[in-house]
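User: Okay, second chain of the day. Same drill as before: sequence in, structure tokens out.
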Amino acid sequence: MKCDWSYEALRKMLAGRDLPGVLVNMDCLDHNIHQVRTVAEKYGKNIRIASKSIRVPYLLSYILENGGSNFKGLMCYSVKEAAYLHSIGFDDLLLAYPTASESDLEIYFSLRQKKANVSLMVDSREQVDLVLSCWNKKQERGAEKAKICIDVDMSYRPMGLHLGVYRSSILSLSGFEKLLDYLLSKDVFEVSGVMGYEAQLAGMGEQNPFSPLLNPVKKIIKKLSVKDVAKKRASIAALMERKDISLEFFNGGGTGSLNSTSEEGWISEVTVGSGFLQSPLFDYYPGNSNKPALAFALQVDRIPGEGILTCKSGGFVASGETTPDKAPVPFLPEGLAIIKNEGFGEVQTPLKNPAYLEINIGDPLLFRPAKAGEIAERFSHYSLIRDYYIEKEVETYRGLGQCFY
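Assistant: Same drill. Structure tokens below.
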């Protein structure tokens, strides 16, 4: 399977085009889909695509269609996003985050009355009561039930430490059972699934060049946490079996924990997003054989001094802890380096240019965004390339006039 990036070929392809622009290497995307599908088929798991890491409807459809029978459904990050995706033909949607917005719940109610297969995330009684209030206000006989997924905390907590993300308020099996029983006591709810996302495994690479001293510690934490997470999820599966409750799905994992999550027999599906486009933060996982499929191109518009180039735009820095690994990574041609006291700017980005690179004003330079999805908020469309030919231009959410939070 062909998957490569040639700077000279790309320089010719991009000559005369308006930049900045985003490129998706479809050969590399195909390779990554194949890699994920291989794991899914090996363990008999379904793959749910994280829309947050794609944000391009065409690519969401492409991945679903080319992934095969194991690729089912999307994990969304916004109720309004789910409504939009349903309106253009997607279904089997899982909302990854709870909402306390009345307007969101009104939209969700409307989706369910259309029999949309959309599950809402909760982790507390207060959230459940908001959904219940929305349903009670409608007082519609025969209204479709609210499909609910319970989010359970999977953080690792040895000796009172918190290693993971602050996400769900359900920290124990007893806490899970209390919320489950409350949901089951109300006839407007259908418990469709459980999610246990282990961020300390799925989102923490232990070969990060920006934190070499912490990498050995991360490795130990991950090794211990794999067992802890499996134990927690196993206890939930056992409880559901005792209560004779059949779930549509038991969701876990992410790109960084695809293999370890898939080994758990009670998990029915694993979420994957960034691994399809393979942003740099996921290069730092051992054994990850996915290929970079996403890059953005900037144009050189100044040469302010010997060994220095300046590009137009470039300030596409990722969210999260403000560490150096959230900045874009110079990609092609090889040898370029950022200037630390300036970094990537909104309107210009200076770079160190080694003498052996012959770069001129007007030339394109390529970079990889640290995270796969967020850059879509800055562009109206992506250029899909295959064999150094622009095969198709496709619109992002923003290009389609959509903006979700």
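The radius of gyration is 23 Å.

User: Thanks, on to the next one.
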